[in-house]
Amino acid sequence: MNIVELQHVAKSYGRSQVLRDVTLAVRSGEFMVVFGMPVSGKSVLVRLITGLEKPDAGRIIIRGQDMTNAAPGERNLGYVPQSFALYPHFSVYDNIAYPLALAKAPKEEIRAEVERAAQLLKIEKFLDRRPDQLSGGQKQRVAIARGLVKRTEIFVLDDPLVGLDFKLRERLIEDLKATQEQLKVTFIYTTSEAVEAMQLASMLSVLHHGEVIEVGPTEELYNRPKRAETMRFVGFPQANFVHGRLIQRDGRHWLSTSLFESPLHQSSHAQIPLDQATRLPISVGVRPEHIMIDPNPPEGALVFKAKVLLREDLGGEEIVYLDAGGQQLTTVLRSDNEIALHISIDETVTAYVLPEQVVVYADGKYVGRAG
To answer: What range defines the domain where residue 272 resides?
Structure first.
């Protein structure tokens, strides 16, 4: 069952169109992450779902009912804003309890719900403190707990971990995922952090320039992206892209780039016919982990030379930045990789990628792979 649906939703401010023809279906019990770069329209989408603003066009369906023009209170949604928005003169307990107190819930019920939410977010020992006695991560846990005490099965979280450092985000990501699974509720969660999106989502929606360009299970969007923007942004480090051309040779289509040439294997799932694709701008995507550095590449590999610009140690792996004939590329190597241990800055190395790992897009839409 779809518990929340957006049908052809649009929103503009003056001459600036922020959302255009957004269609999205969220099933009951899903952890739906809406992922997009800053200013892609995520926060506006949240305001439309929660009823803080009205769309210019389209419909918003909640629990099977048209709620497009319904007030926020009629929608019965839990909401966690991007900012903490805590009352400084309230205790942590009273901050969490505020939505229930506002609804005039019985005191016994309020206490039970506050203690449940505090336990889920691991802040039981802070209930008597004020917000100014908490760290940033603890304040965010309080803000999330306050959203979770709402008596509802649908929660909307607007980039709630933004601004927190990496370690805090890692801990909160684990707790949020466990909380959603334990409560068996629906989360609609926005973020501009690719790793966060991939760790949390059971379903991932990519919002780009005000449009939902692709929706699906996280693994599917990572391994088989239908849009170039999905491949570029869903993943860390971001995917490499080079310009290419489709040419005909020996009765078949070939992919030509500044790094390599290869026959083109057109997929049955191609979004654009090959004859049309040859007349459109071609972009070629390769994920960093698929670029290998090895003086002895395997047979059939697409081989090119590159200069090592920089090495960035991430602990268990290294990001290596390359210059291949003026084309900036990144690759990821395990820190225990013997080759990675011996390459030096400014060294020219032999790099390769396997044809099936080279993804071809025409005007941003999937065409096929090399090989």
So the answer is: 240-370
